[in-house]
Design a protein that fits this description.
The complex is a heterodimer of chains A (about 200) and B (about 190). Chain A is mainly alpha-helical. In chain A, about 70% of the residues lie in helices and about 0% in strands. Chain B has one domain (about 40-185). The chains are: A mainly alpha (about 200), B alpha+beta (about 190). At the A-B interface, helix 2, helix 3, helix 4, helix 6 and helix 7 of A face helix 1, helix 2, strand 3, strand 4 and strand 6 of B.
């Protein structure tokens, strides 16, 4: 059928298209293409933002902001969609982490009055091993955590991860090596041996 | 401890980490895109609205009385508001008292404590700093969880920063609004 863009979610033809084809289709006015893209990438982007920020509300805001860039047509055909959406999400997370850190310091200096709320997601994690893994990842420095999440959780190629994080290949290898040692130490303390 | 690559089982553990529960939908994104800019995004600069200010400056500056600590307060019966400031610079953060100097390489963050909900007007001198926003009782930081640091385009000696808490968004008056202010001295480069 030709004519007006499809307005119903998940039009039958869109699920098999590549991310880039869907992004092109959205730019051409196909709302169903955007919905398919969103459904495809919502959980990965949201999961990444949540593990970077540890606050669901903030993670959702990052996710919305990142996809707003797509809605605005800011994605450029010269680059892959996945790299773009994660680059945007990563920068939005870092921005929030920086601002959050600064405000915590101000709050301490001025007058502490509101404690941090615990994450309902964390409370919902019943599996002990999973819980320990989440905590160990959360304890990593920001860039190392980002590297682990993109390389191991999203299973991206190292080159793509390095581009998103604005690192050299060597820096990424070093970050991943550090992160692996830290995670092993947290998850398998008995495995630790003296160098 | 020596490093080795994760084995398949370890990789699977990480790659299978579950996504967080969320009801976020594509409609949320499309709706967010349609909304006007967020009014909580305060203070992207100081260049806002000299226009309004000239008109209201007299009202703003005339209604403040003196408090015990030498800071200016609003009249009784309209609640209370307390404006605090901290400077951030290369040496870190430090709280600011009225009359404190702020170095040319520092910037200032503000925090407002209000004893009731209302509309908050913030000013630098006579100039409204960003939008008037509705706040709840308690602490409020310009910019919310993304606090804004401020510094004037030109460091020009003493500047007075004022917070007004009013029952509505219309121009504050001393009869209706509580106020507090702090004067800071911006050092020249």
């Amino acid at each position: 059928m030709r004519g007006a863009p499809a307005l119903t979610p998940a039009a039958p033809k869109t699920p098999n298209l590549s991310d880039e084809d869907l992004a092109h289709a959205w730019i051409a006015g196909d709302e169903a293409a955007f919905r398919t893209l969103f459904d495809r990438w919502r959980d990965p982007v949201l999961g990444y933002a949540w593990r970077m920020l540890r606050r669901r509300e903030e993670a959702e805001e990052v996710c919305v902001d990142a996809f707003c860039r797509i809605v605005e047509g800011r994605w450029q055909p010269s680059g892959g969609f996945r790299a773009y959406i994660f680059t945007v999400a990563h920068r939005l997370c870092l921005d929030r982490i920086r601002r959050r850190g600064r405000w915590s310091r101000v709050r301490t200096l001025l007058r502490a009055d509101d404690g941090g709320a615990s994450s309902p997601e964390a409370a919902a994690i019943n599996d002990q091993r999973l819980n320990r893994l989440e905590k160990a990842i959360a304890a990593l420095p920001d860039q190392h955590r980002a590297a682990v999440l993109l390389f191991y959780r999203q299973e991206m190629p190292s080159r793509e991860v390095a581009d998103i994080l604005d690192m050299s290949d060597q820096q990424l290898r070093s970050a991943l090596s550090y992160a692996r040692r830290r995670l092993r130490k947290e998850l398998n303390p008995a495995e630790e041996v003296s160098p | 401890m020596t490093d080795r690559e994760f084995n398949a089982e370890e990789r699977a553990e990480i790659s299978n980490l579950p996504p967080p529960e969320s009801g976020l939908t594509a409609d949320d994104v499309l709706e967010a895109r349609r909304r006007p800019a967020n009014n909580n995004q305060f203070f992207t600069g100081f260049a806002i609205a000299a226009v309004t200010l000239l008109a209201v400056a007299g009202v703003y500056t005339s209604g403040l009385g003196s408090g015990d600590d030498g800071r200016e307060r609003g009249p009784a019966g309209v609640g209370s508001v307390h404006l605090q400031a901290a400077a951030e610079g290369p040496e870190g953060m430090r709280p600011l008292k009225p009359g404190d100097h702020v170095a040319s390489d520092e910037q200032v963050l503000f925090k407002v404590d209000a004893d009731r909900a209302g509309w908050l007007h913030l000013l630098e001198g006579d100039a409204v700093m960003g939008s008037v926003v509705q706040i709840d009782a308690g602490s409020f930081t310009p910019g919310g969880d993304r606090p804004q640091a401020w510094r004037p385009d030109h460091a020009t000696g003493s500047l007075t920063y004022s917070a007004w808490l009013c029952p509505d968004s219309t121009t504050p008056t001393a009869e209706r609004c509580a106020g507090d202010q702090i004067a800071l001295v911006w050092e020249r480069d």
